[in-house]
Write a structure and sequence with these properties.
This protein is α+β, with helices and mostly antiparallel strands. The protein has a single domain, classed as Electron Transport, Fmn-binding Protein, Chain A (Pnp Oxidase, Chain A, Roll), CATH 2.30.110.10. 21% of the residues lie in helices and 40% in strands. It has 5 helices and 10 strands, in the order βαββββαβααβββαβ. The strands form 2 sheets. Strands 1, 2, 3, 4, 5, 6, 9 and 10 form an 8-stranded antiparallel beta sheet that branches. The chain has a two-stranded antiparallel ribbon with strand order 7-8. Strand 4 and strand 5 form a beta hairpin.
Length: 169
């Protein structure tokens, strides 16, 4: 994997996240256990004067516990050939499924507790800077809460400072 500057990301992030999907991956601080999940909500931009990324995770997801413990997480993006793997990572829980074994995704530990997969075309390493749950009473358009959170299972928003970006060479 080739390390690049965040400014070298040329992909259309609306397409990458919303249509092609990404994996959110977080690991235990000791570096051995990790989990990944597919996401189609999130974003990239500038926050507090630096490159940043945000993602959301519901508390019932297995990845949530890893996100809570981890100081860092990754957002990674894949070729269309990995669509079935991403689908499985979004529909099966890591509590019950060995996602790498089931999908053929090959884990790569970039540093202790920071994971991606060999097949990733792009991996963004983020350091958590801010996290809080979305709150029903703060939605300015109540229709959003009604549509997406009928069960009141609000996502937790994580804003991460971009520490590194890797492109598959």
């Amino acid at each position: 994997m080739l390390k690049i500057n965040p400014e070298e990301i040329t992909a259309n992030v609306f397409d990458q996240i919303g249509q092609q999907w990404m994996l959110i991956t977080a690991g235990e601080p000791d570096g051995e256990a990790f989990n990944t999940m597919t996401a189609s909500w999130g974003g990239l931009g500038v926050m507090w004067g630096a490159p940043a990324a945000f993602c959301v995770v519901r508390p019932q997801r297995h990845t949530f516990g890893f996100m809570e413990k981890a100081a860092r997480y990754t957002l990674s993006f894949y070729p269309e050939a990995c669509r079935d793997a991403l689908n499985l990572c979004g529909t099966r829980s890591g509590r019950d499924t060995d996602k790498p074994a089931e999908t053929g995704l090959r884990p790569v530990q970039l540093e202790p507790g920071v994971w991606t997969f060999e097949q990733a075309e792009l991996t963004i390493v983020c350091r958590k800077l801010y996290a809080d749950f979305l709150k029903e009473d703060l939605f300015l358009d109540p229709a959003i809460s009604a549509k997406w959170y009928a069960a009141k299972d609000y996502h937790k928003l994580y804003i991460g400072g971009v520490e590194a970006v890797y492109r598959n060479a």
